[in-house]
Write a structure and sequence with these properties.
Length: 106
């Protein structure tokens, strides 16, 4: 559903969901209370009572600016994927790739 209503879950009988699961829409998506964008990056908050995005970003906006300003055309999202083999604990690699200085930029 485009309204955020949970329509189904995989294997509802065998996955161990309690009888009370998703009663009265308890697991439906919540509408984003506040949504703003900055330089092509999208930010959403479930809380209405938050600072305006630019104020919240503060000095972090400079990092976004540096990333976007690497190209005269600004931010461009490219199709495709980047794959490689990592011979180690997957959790370490996932954490390593989630930090801000491993953002892929062209």
């Amino acid at each position: 559903s485009n309204a955020g209503k949970l329509l189904a879950v995989k294997d509802p009988r065998g996955a161990g969901y309690p009888e009370s699961f998703n009663k009265n829409g308890s697991h439906d998506l919540t509408r984003v209370a506040r949504f703003e964008s900055y330089r092509g990056f999208l930010f959403g908050s479930l809380n209405h009572d938050v600072l305006p995005l630019r104020e919240h970003l503060g000095e972090a906006a400079k990092i976004i600016d540096m990333i976007v300003d690497q190209s005269p055309e600004g931010l461009e999202v490219l199709r495709g994927s980047s794959t490689y083999v990592y011979d180690g604990n997957w959790k370490l690699q996932t954490e390593n790739g989630a930090d801000g200085y491993h953002v892929t930029a062209v």
